[in-house]
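Help! Submission page says 'invalid entity' but I think these are all valid:
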Amino acid sequence: MAAVTPLLLLLLLSSAPSFSSGSRNAYNINGRVKIPQGLGLGTKSYALPGRMSNIKVLLNGGQNITFLRPDGYFSFHNIPAGTHLIEVSAIGYFFSPVRVDVSARNPGKVQAALTENRKGLSELVLEPLREEQYYEIREPFSIVSLLKSPMGLMVGFMLAVAFLMPKLVENMDPEEMRRAQEEMRSQGVPSLSSLLPGGARN
Amino acid sequence: MAIRSFLILFILFFFSSLNPILSLYEDQVGLVDWHQQYLGKVKQAVFHTHKTGRKRVVVSTEENVVASLDLRQGEIFWRHVLGSNDVIDGIDIALGKYVITLSSGGSILRAWNLPDGQMMWESSLRGPKHSKSLLLVPTNLKIEKDNIVIIFSNGRLNAVSCIDGEVLWEKDFEGESLEVQQVIQPPGSNLIYVVGFSSSSLFEMYQINALNGELLQHESAAFSGGFLGEVSPVFSETVVALDSTGLILLTISFQNGKISFQQTPISNLVKDSFGPAKIIPSSVTGIFAIKMNGVTIVIRVTDENKLEVVEKTNHQTSISDALSISEGQQAFALVQHAGDEIHLRVKLAHNWDDNLLKESVKMDQNRGLVHNIYINNYIRTDKSYRFRALIVMEDHSLLLLQQGEIVWSREDGLASIIDVTTSELPVERDGVSVAKVEHNLFEWLKGHVLKLKGTLMLASPQDIAAIQSMRLKNSEKSKMTRDHNGFRKLLIVLTRAGKLFALHTGDGHIVWSHLLQSLQKSKVCQHPIGLNLYKWQVPHHHAMDENPSVLVIGKCGPSSDAPGALSFVDTYTGKELSSLSLVHSIAQVIPLPYTDSTEQRLHLLIDADKHAHLYPKTPEAISIFEHEFSNIYWYSVEDDNGIIKGHALRGRCTGEVADEVRFDTRELWSIVFPSESEKIIATVTRKLNEVVHTRAKVIADQEVMYKYISRNLLFVATVALKGSGEIGSVTPEESWLVAYLIDTVTGRILHRVTHHGSQGPVHAVFSENWVVYHYFNLRAHRYEMSVIEIYDQSRADNKDVWKLVLGKHNLTLPISLYSRPDVITKSQSYFFTHSVKAIAVTSTTKGITSKQLLIGTIGDQVLALDKRFLDPRRTVNPTQAEKEEGIIPLTDSLPIIPQSYVTHALRVEGLRGIITVPAKLESTTLVFAHGVDLFFTQLAPSRTYDSLTDDFNYALLLITIVALVAAIFVTWTLSERKELQENWR
């Protein structure tokens, strides 16, 4: 049982994340969450780099939950050998879950892979795959968007009818126009049902 | 032609302007949603009130939350929710800057930075055996200038450095049957006493050097009477215990290494003593309390180890821990109930007769009794001591008392919600109080002009702030009456403390709260548990004048045959209409689809002996029930035995007990899962009140598929026995997951599918004719979600028009579950990134609006995922027709679009459940997510196609109309002039 003290010392002194064996069949998983400085500076970010107190690291769907130290390191204690899943929950960032193999045969061996893109990790340093933007960005006001709105369309259509239709009628062949008028008369008033796409089938 | 093309054009434009993604702009936060943060019932509080800096109190709660609160307003500075099996054993403040927490049965020690809650270090402590966990932070005990924390846990005493969490020394207490009770560190010395019992009649004392863990002395002494329960330290070298009968108090002193017992029968102290007593440990020097049969007795220990009773009371009493106020002086607080007041007294430990403070505070009856009290002192400008007390009430609320007043209160009972239901608000009419919302036309116009300015980006920063506050303060949404769109409702929630709250959906304020008497500890019912909420009476049509009410179901104690308790609560006023203590137990509650003439819903309660009891017990209800007697079926799941059984009623019980409506039941069928290979881990049915708009589903090429819609479908998931553990404990070869669709009337298995190499936990949701479930795929080591859709084939040939015309169709045939259903199922699986805590599906009034799945992720966010992503007909390359139908090309994993998190940048910490309620407006559904936090929002899965959104710009519409009218006049005059010119020519 005296093995714990040197183990803890090692844990605190060594910066390299590793798996270290504690007692007979329980192991520790040590790792680090790193948020690159480039991310989250340009755009609005929710978890400021450096302030990571709200980031949680979860093992096997919440079986164990731990938090980050100021330098981003975390550790899970007393984990049995086997294949585990580590997830990072951080508002504003998307982290891929990580598959971690804790081997009983050769303790200390690092085997981790991102499950999203099957990328292997040589050491357990978790970085966000991307930033998450939870809000839509309001588009700046533009004439086009105003015209695209139903009201803009109404005005536009009215203008088109008022100014273009007479032009069209003017350019039309008089004979063709007469024919069209006759056709319209024979068809009668078009009912609304025939205009709807579904109505045509019946 | 022209009109048609115009219409098509218009529709096209109209739809192109719709964004397919449901999302929120940042300035819309708080318009329809609200978020409330809670902590849970406080089990320990530590004050931090140094002269400089903010005054705060650090608390740990039963929801495994550690938080720092502002002492002025009760606001949360920071908060951490630990894992569900990471129960906090103790907290304290060390070095004046770290919060130390001991959790997970004393195996994890963490230090948090007091100002901002950043975790500073974490240590794992192990030990030889399971034991009590004790945390001790000595104030001035240093090892090489290093302050230490003393922890006793798992049979080992540890001294840990405060600076970095390093274990400085450790000492095992491996004695076979040694049960350590207390660790005492006399202030000002370098000694630690560890006291405990071994082999039930031996008292053991270890004296340890605090600097290096060296054992200085070990003494033990036998006491033939044995010991019971806990010990209470009274002096640094004296403890008080009870003998095994609970009738004799033992004062055990171990001064100078000599253990001596002194026996005092309780009957000597109190004349009319009855029954065994229990020690209430306190840390106050020379004072402890015992409780027997509802009577609290406070006892003082004199210097000669004599005991004397200083107070004996029938009232509920709580004693705070000791607070050292000056050199050698300790103060403590006592709080007692008397009617609707509580009396708070602060006394000095060595002087019982004088009170430092005596105050009475009026207390709301709905808060129940005081469960815990913590005191803290502050020095006024005139150098006098004043006290403030933090009290934890029976309803789990937290209050700060100062100068005889409640400074602030927190309703932390809302952190542990058991069940939720909704209720409508009263209809607006004369006499019903309505918040003032009507304002004049000018203000209305001003508001819209401001909004227009905002749209046109002409608004100044002040204007933007004004717009924002105008939108948030919209008093319309928190009115106390029903609205046309059905957005305003009451959320009725039942908390673990047995308190019922009504929350307004508009802004989340508490409309009323009521502590249910039927769910309070009493002589008959020692451990009441709230179970469920049901809508008892939903008045509409002819019973409009009645108030709606809810039925609260509870039981006494955790065992399955504990008697049940019912309460009926009016949802408008929060008054308990009546309550019943049942003689029978409650195993299952079945709300029946029948109501009586006063719109009371019939409920069938099944007890542990498989008898059915009908409520309400009126003759009218019985006659309705007997009419539908043969149509009532239900099922029961016995997860431990792996059996699912179907039941029906047999007849009224012959041996009739007075005032009981009891029926015999019979077993119809049973499905027994092989216990060695399959273990039931999840069962899900459709929501009873779900509305399905159409059975037919038109697919590409004008084909029709008929959904198999039955209220009696049950989804069951089983896993291999080995795979029922946690992830990582099993290999893919040893684990499988089987999903079943079972008809609960006939017990017929309609569908069965095996997922090899998969394991639980399974979260599932059942709606219409589909079920979606989430599980873990061990081969890919990723989570997966699968969908099963079930279709009715017997109606598949009804597509022929001629058959319909000639009446040869079978659409009007009654559906019987006894006829062999001809069904086909379609299913598909996808990867999903996150672990899931809960899944729900949106529900709307008519069921026309497309559905969204609401997935509560492990990060405590709620993700809205369109059901179209979980459509078994998705293919890699959909045909043109399928694309038109809206089928999304198949991908191997489900997309996570950050904008579709309905909780946006918030977390619903400790998420446990998601509830959706339809609004009256078809497009909209109300979503309530609860855990330690509460979150509410409105969702429109297919956008609000049937109403204008809040930010619809009426001013722009007015301007357009004015412009159009003006244009008409201008063109009219222009054309007139032109005509005139034509005529002149």
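Support: the input was valid. A stray whitespace character was the problem, and the output above is from the cleaned input. Chain A has two domains: 4-131, 143-188.
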